[in-house]
Amino acid sequence: QVQLVESGGGSVQAGGSLRLSCAASGDTRSSSCMGWFRQVPGKEREWVASIDKTDSTMYADSVKGRFTISRDNAKHTLYLQMNSLSPEDTAMYYCAADRTKCSLLPRYNYWGQGTQVTVSS
Question: Which tens digits make up the pLDDT trace of 57-74?
Fold first, then answer.
């Protein structure tokens, strides 16, 4: 079992930056992959980025070059550095962990409660 708690969301202006954090507890060793997803009400949950245990990272085309996913194993924390934010980035952001693999689909084993990011023009 892994528990995930996101933080760091908020309201920023377009072009601004924000860093999201995801604190993990429980059996963190079981997480082969951790990732970030985002969702707007009425829309499907969208994959944003992921990182595996070798620190290999992947990004959605919509955020590549602007967002950076990283983790601090000692602190059991996942991060998402978000730069050059656009109103299109407005969403509820969720961190997720999977026991088996990284996936572009929202089928990870564990999820946080989400943190809201709002980007204004």
Answer: 999 999 999 999 999 988
